[in-house]
């Protein structure tokens, strides 16, 4: 029997960006909040020995313990889904701060086009442009409505960047200036400008300068030490809940933070939640935490899984296209890129930062004409300088053996002489790409794992073909001695693709028929349940998801505050 | 005009000052004292086990086996050396102690797949579904070493470690293609992948794990290891070669 605890106003499952933003906003407003985090506690000084590529990147120390919980995957309904037994692709965060601790810090806004993608596509290209197997939807909110929340998130996290004309209107410039334009990025800039494009510095949560945010949190500037992705920042230069939102919430005295607490079920009668059940991951002891409002902020996969395991919301059925939980799972499309090899030039590639990059806006969203294209949306074409760590980066021209003397010679020769022009493309929903419960495999607590049914679509293959040519043109202009271009989208491979930008499954919208939550992230089917995170995205744009996730979290916090006073549906 | 040396000193001072200040600004979370004191540490000669005053190497107690039996260690070193051989660019896997690294990794929690999902049932995967291997890494590696010897004896009438380099390459190529005899149901290509991954790690992981001896793996590719700041270097049009520095240099600053 679960031990029943006293009722609280708000309980949050998951203390990454989404959960900690909501916790900080509610506790500042004087609302007692319980934060449940399945992983361990974290503080900035934990990161002092973090420059360890093996421990943090290849042994995934900051990531979810897959022995306790993973996903199963298959490319289509005809296959048997099998568990992701070790890390290959998604690196799912775990512990206080969640993925907000190990991220790179690339912090974009989505485009005005994204929020009204269906309406705007039909307006420009006609009703038949969107094929019926792609359930593209408007988000139930416009960019103009999102703008203030983006602004709040950017000020809290101190985003560095520069205004881009082709993107949505900004009420304020970025709170800090752009990151350093390094010689590597200048190579891209020169080439892109020659081709008539307007490159801009990537918006970054790695601070370009010392910064104090509106909550009074002061953080130091980035040192370009090259350990962002997979690592925590020992300077606090990278925005991370551990150095921003969580200390603010803790200072109020209104946050009851419990780590090693894994939520397994939402207690509900189908229309309202009464609380959650969670397990102490060390002892196995079960607790029931009653609450007036239940917030799920436990990453895309777990948000969907908790709802399905709790019988809350109507599961998506790919055969009929009805139901909403698990619908519109999207990913990202990054297979179009060119790798540049220089024989007589060396760059300081050991240095870098997770959001140090330069990009062109011309091929994002609907910024170019799609009349004669068999795909919608687009990609950011970019060069980045993360810092090339030596286990992970052993580039050699295609055709070089993967081991032996030639491998050694080539990988060492180009260790400091290889650049890339990459792309990050939008992922649009397909009716056969979805999430549900696995019929066979269970987690350490006996709950079914989440099953992902996903493959790249014709839209993705066309997009990759188109965009890879753009990367090639820029690469050629950069004048290396050799270029390899990858221009074909292979099937989705759970151990090969490297991106954790999973979205969808509990999507927002204006209509309960085709969405699970409203624009305040409040469930249509249970008004005291708020499901927050990239699980809310009806499709994934060509940008990193955290900026939009952060903005939506601030809107959700506002909605929860209102709900606690007024009750009922917020829209 | 400032000389380069003066410029460096100014930059160093600025970095120290900023770190001290930011430590202060962060209130309570003191990074200035901790991180700041590391900034000037570019001395790579603090690896106490490398040299004595006389210049003669002293024993490194880390070079000892916690998992392999001696013959397995020999086979491992021979195989790793073919993955990353010694040549005029510098040492190979053997000299870099990749074998010791592999031994220690297989003895670790990673060797017993502690953080992997290991519940059954196990089915043969499609190529897109990732490995579905029931055998633990430490056991698969041991089976693979035995497999290398069996295959070598069958085809060349001698153990793997005693083959000529070209013959060893032939054996490894067969294993890479999955053409060796099944290892308790696991393809030799899965063993080969493990061997290749561990060898690369053993060359380039921080020396604290037993490989990358004296940071020579890093030195070969001009990788500086771990520094707290590259603000100056990242702006430079010229390549800036730095002395290698390992995590050991971050100790004693907590």
UniProtKB/TrEMBL annotation, chain A:
Instruction: Please state which protein family the record places this protein in.
Output: Belongs to the GMC oxidoreductase family.
Species annotation: Virgibacillus indicus
Please give the Gene Ontology molecular function terms for this protein. Answer: flavin adenine dinucleotide binding; oxidoreductase activity, acting on CH-OH group of donors
Q: Does the keyword Oxidoreductase apply?
A: yes
Pfam families, per database record: GMC_oxred_C, GMC_oxred_N
Q: Which residues form the Glucose-methanol-choline oxidoreductase C-terminal domain?
A: 429-552
Supply the alphabetized keyword list.
FAD, Flavoprotein, Oxidoreductase
Highest taxon, organism lineage? Bacteria
Question: Known PANTHER family for this protein?
Answer: LONG-CHAIN-ALCOHOL OXIDASE
Q: Where is the Glucose-methanol-choline oxidoreductase N-terminal domain?
A: 183-330
What's the protein here called?
A: GMC family oxidoreductase
TrEMBL record, chain B:
Going by the UniProt record, its keywords in alphabetical order are:
Membrane, Transmembrane, Transmembrane helix
Transmembrane in keyword set: yes
Top-level taxon in the UniProt lineage? Bacteria
Q: Where is the chain membrane-spanning?
A: 21-40
Spell out the protein name for this chain.
Dehydrogenase
Species:
Virgibacillus indicus
Taxonomic lineage is:
Bacteria, Bacillati, Bacillota, Bacilli, Bacillales
